[in-house]
Amino acid sequence: MKNKSIILFSVTIAMLAWNSCKKDEKTVAPPDPENEVITTVKLVATNAADTTDVVTAQWKDLTPNDGNPDLTLAAMTLKKNATYNVAVTFLDETKSPVEDITEEVQERSNFHLVCYTPAASLNVAVQRTDLDNSTPQMPLGLKTRFTTGGASAGALQVALHHQPSGKNGTDCSIGSTDVDVNFAVTLQ
Amino acid sequence: MVRFFSATVLLVLFCLHAVVVRAQDCVYRISGTVTDNQRHPLLGAVVRIETDSTKGDVTDTSGKFTILNACQGHLMLTCKADGFSTAVAHIHIDGNNSVQFVLSADKNQLHEVVVNGVRMQDLHTVSHTELKGLALLQSRGKSLGEALKMLPGLNTIQTGPTIAKPVIHGLHSNRVLLLNNGVRQEGQQWGSEHAPEIDPFVANRINVVKGAASVRYGADAIGGVVLLDPDPLPINKGISGDAYLIGQSNGRMGTASMSLQGKLSEKLAGVAWRLQGTVKRAGNFSTPNYFLKNTGISEQDFSASVGYKRNGWEVAGYYSMFNTKNGIFEGAHAGNITDLYAAFSRTRPITQSVFSYNIGRSYQRVYHDLAKATAIYRFANEGKLELNIARQKDLREEFDISLPFTKDPELLKKPQVSFQLKTHSAELVYTQPSLNGFSGNVGVAGNTQGNVFRGIRYLIPNFRTYSGGAFAIERYTYKRLTIEAGARYDYRWQQVYQRNQSTLATYHTTLEFSNITATGGAIYRLSDQLTFTGNVGTAWRAPSVNELYIHGVHFSDASYQDGDSTLGAERSLNTSVTMSYQSTKLRATIDVYNNIIGNYIYETPQARPVTLLSGTFPAFKFTQDNVAIRGVDASVQYDFLSHFTLQSRATIVRGYNHTAKDWLIYMPADRYENGLVFNLHEFGFMEEPYLSVENVSVLRQDRVPPGIDYAPPPAGYSIFNASTGFTTHIRKHKTQLDFTVSNFTNAAYREYLDRFRYYADNIGINFIVKTKISF
Q: Vertex A82, ends A80 and A85: CA angle to 5°?
């Protein structure tokens, strides 16, 4: 008899314990509206000799987690033997209005470095023209000058490196990579 | 519905058992030696169980005695010899025990009793091992994973010097169960960089069950179970306690832990309590050649228990809290595969570092608390009914090295991912009294858990799980043979809540699993020294949510992981044989096992890498295959000369994927430990002083599947450790001191099972001082 009452008691306690918990898990947290995700890398190249000659290209992936980027506009054609001033912008196009993340990179410029690596076949030299706020100041790479050579074509890799320590303004292998995309560039 | 089902099963099993139970029977053996304080054996000393005067023995010429058929429970043992003070030992019998009495000729001096119980776990025939004595003291201050590495058959999987998880017979993470004071620890054990959320100082007894233990402990116990138990609450009045102070040179780590316990009297007689707390702080650890930047630890833990005993009743409450912040080595961050290869090609991390206690991004913050209530009723016939109800909360937050891109300053303070798991569990176990050689237990267990994931990037979904199980284990002992059999039924219901990426609508998926597990084994005592144990057991594990639904970049190893929602449960069949030889000069144990796991879940590389905006990532998908893990653990201690002991341990594991016809990745490399110990009984003011030198040799792991790992396995290594210490009494307070130098040749090496082997060496020379004061 005593055993039975113990069991009854324990089952009751167990059920109380079970039912006392809230079901928080049914509310799946939505993506934080304040968090910005880079969806788009945009290059705007302005011919130094003719400021009306502006070429743009963009590498875009509105669902940045699934590996299906939209590469239809990730190509640009520049004039051979010319000089272009190029600005890179990082956008979050899932937001309305579109968020410009370049501002945040600029704010934390001491810990970022944008690197440009043309393929061997592509006859272009890239030089960073802007500086960060460290002492002494070091290159940042949001603004660059492209000096094009003879007619050629190939990939141009654009990478944004986060370098919380060890930034020296030249070494792109330091830190971790936030952006790493390729543009198809043709010089003609 | 599940709950009612479990309750019904319990009632049926309970009634069946109640019929069998009539009177008490006693099956345990107490053996040991009696010596004087010069360690000379005493002939003719009388050892007797005071509570049962019919049982006793007289020592032979080598000072040995054996008492057979001792009953389970508390008993008082006395040892009398002419011309010596009488020794009394209070021991708790739940297995075979060995007791060493050291008698003093001087009536005013205290005698000494050392009780070495072979504490039986609920499954007697599954091989088990315990961290105790000097090894337990020497493990203090280490994380649980590191401490258990001192046992044969155990390895660790590490993420640098601060994160270590136990590996039992080649298996780890959610294939190893942890029991904190009898309660299944429920945390985020699926990640190899998610260390156990537990402070080893809460326990004075650390046991490891190596093998399939699902019948007793439920799902997931495929590799084994680690049981952490505090000492029983005090039975004597007055306040007592222990204090540990540990300092180590590497990482300039300091650990302090204290426990205080007492028993109340008069009106509150029967009430006993204990308070325990630990603080730990470490800064950057160092390898032989450089510091590891951002590898600090800051940990604060606390536990409290209170118990009340009266007549057959015993009720107790227990609370423990674990709180840690761990830095993640800065050189180990990779945004994509290019970064990873750049890091591999460096012989040393790119950022120079110095010593600092500062913990910056990235770091993990982990909080775990457990509240438990226990009620035990002991029947007049020695049977026992025990109810445990527990609630635990695990909160894990990970802060990436990069701050999120945002214009909201609040978001910058938030973790990139956080997991909160709340578990409510209950277990009711009836332990039958030993009768005519029969003993065993039956029980039911159930739990429910809710997982809430929050993060600014998706990793795993939310879920709610209900699970319940019922088990029965029965043993029969006849003379030198014990046979054991058990079975269990488990049911698990899980609902997973996700959000559609494009429509943002919440949807759910329901998964059900049920499984029957069984175990059977035998122990045969060929002689007083030689025992053979064999067991065949099954275990199972339902796929965890990350294996089912993870989708995205796993930053710690720069891989893109994809879950498979069609995965089924893993099932294992484990056969093990243990041979144990225990004589006064030679103590040896050899475990041989073969663990066949069907539907073993692991990550397999995909042919096409994934192109994301942040670069190219190798893609992995969870899949399941049939595998086998077999191996040998051996440990030998040989007193080849008086005062000298040779000790050796070997841990050998082989894992093979029979479906893919290839080796399994991340299996521990062969490890051999050999040491020489010199000890004395007394030297001046020092009691039991010792001096030991040990070599740990690990071979290169050559049995790996080709082309999967980012870097080939590191070379084998050999490191040396030395330690010395003694016990003394400072104002009657027993004080133990230990001084250890680990890796005293300051060898630079990398360990295959350390995830940071890609980026940096293991830690170098380390001087460690440990003090334990009992008061």
A: 125
The per-residue pLDDT for B21 is 35
pLDDT band at B209 (very low <50, low <70, confident <90, very high): very high
- Split into its structural domains, chain B has a count of 2
Is residue B219 one of the residues assigned to a domain?
no
Domain boundary pick from B59, B92, B118: B118
Answer yes or no: do B339 and A64 touch at CB < 8 A.
no
Spatial CA neighbour of A35 closest among A101, A81, A83 = A101
Task: Please give the C-alpha separations between residue B379 and each of B201, B310, B383, B434, B474, in angstroms, as whole numbers.
Answer: 33, 13, 5, 12, 19
Q: How many helices (H) and strands (E) does chain A have?
A: 2, 10
- Which among B163, B156, B347, B344 is positioned nearest to B758, based on CA atoms? B344
Tens digit of each residue's pLDDT (9 = 90 or more) over B121-146: 788 888 888 888 788 888 998 999 99
Chain A residues within an 8 Å CB radius of B498: 28
Q: Is residue B594 part of a domain?
A: yes
B3 and A15 within 8 Å at the Cβ level: the answer is: yes
User: Does A3 touch chain B if contact means CB atoms closer than 8 Å?
Assistant: yes
Note the pLDDT of residue B117. 56
Q: Identify from B405, B467, B611 which residue to disrupt to test chain A contact, counting A C-beta atoms within 10 A and taking the largest count.
A: B405
Helix (H) or strand (E) holding B216: helix B214-217
Q: Please tell me the predicted confidence (pLDDT) of residue B557.
A: 63
Contact residues, chain B, for A69 at CB < 8 Å: 611-613
CB contacts < 8 A, A to B, total: 177
Nearest to B405 among A18, A38, A177 (CB): A38
Give residue-wise pLDDT tens across range B477-502. Answer: 888 899 999 999 999 999 999 888 77
Interval B522-551: pLDDT, tens: 999 898 789 999 999 999 999 998 899 988
Tell me, yes or no, if A19 comes closer than 8 A to chain B by beta carbon: no
**For testing contact with chain A, the best of B13, B378, B613 (most A CBs within 10 A):** B613
Domain final residue pick, B56, B90, B118: B118
Chain B contact set for A13 (CB, 8 A)? 387, 389, 426
Q: How many CB atoms lie within 10 A of CB A139?
A: 21
Return the structure tokens found at B70. 């001792």
Tell if the CB–CB gap between B330 and A101 is shorter than 8 Å. no
Q: Look up residue B540 and give its two tokens.
A: 């199972």
Question: Among A109-113, B57-61, B275-279, B605-609, which stretch is predicted with the lowest mean pLDDT?
Answer: B605-609
Full residue range of the structural domain in which residue B426 is found: 224-237+280-437+451-774
The answer to whether position B570 is within a domain reads yes
Return all residues near B345 (Cβ < 8 A) that are at least 6 apart: none
For residue A109, CA distances in Å to A115, A132, B121, B237, B252 come to 13, 5, 60, 66, 34
Over residues B374-401, mean pLDDT: 91
CATH of the domain at B678: 2.40.170.20
Residue A106 contacts B where some CB pair is shorter than 8 Å: no
Looking up residue B33, the CATH number of its domain turns out to be 2.60.40.1120
**Distance of residue B6 Cα from the nearest chain A Cα, in angstroms:** 10
ipTM: 0.77
Which of B97, B19, B25, B18 lies closest to B437 in space, CA to CA? B25
Average pLDDT value for residue range B282-306: 93
- Which chain A residues touch B351 with a CB distance below 8 Å? 165-166, 174
Chain A nearest-CA residue for B610: A67
Q: Give pLDDT tens digits for A131-151.
A: 999 889 999 999 999 999 999
pLDDT at B637 over 60: yes
Q: Do B3 and A17 touch (CB under 8 A)?
A: no
B140 inside domain: no
Residues 27-86 of B with CB under 8 A from A: none
Q: Do residues B230 and B111 both lie within one domain?
A: no
